[in-house]
Amino acid sequence: xxxxxxxxxxxxxxxxxxxxxxxxxxxxxxxxxxxxxxxxxxxxxxxxxxxxxxxxxxxxxxxxxxxxxxxxxxxxxxxxxxxxxxxxxxxxxxxxxxxxxxxxxxxxxxxxxxxxxxxxxxxxxxxxxxxxxxxxxxxxxxxxxxxxxxxxxxxxxxxxxxxxxxxxxxxxxxxxxxxxxxxxxxxxxx
Length: 190
Prior knowledge:
Distance between the termini: 17 Å
Order of helices and strands: HHHHHHHH
Radius of gyration: 17 Å
Largest sheet: none
Number of strands: 0
Structural class: mainly alpha
Helix content: over 70%
């Protein structure tokens, strides 16, 4: 993996966590528009976390079977689809179901990205690359709620989708990483 590909993977991780965090300040507005209680609001956040917690082992086994890059692409696609489906939510049950399905589909994204870095770096450089992945993830999670809090009081209907416009960029970057990895693999076997 080239340095450019690694930076693209950092960017995808940053963008994914920004997209997750940008929703948090918008959820109260969405909850108010659907007349949700604070308990229901809490279950929307907890449901996402529990669904990811229980589905990650499945994605890990699938990544070992079909590869990390396809799981990363499925995770990115599921993450984007979950945000798009939020537009269709018109009740608590539909919102909870969309959040849980989105969490299940996207839960393979972070572990697959970390596994890519782990598999592609030798022991000497691996810890530095993993630390940078963690930093990109943490920075994205910090920037997401900040952006969401700045946008949600004014544009609460579109806050969820403000940073999702970058999703196609993430997909194309991931495809670039996939094609570079395949090219390097083919050059090593030749």
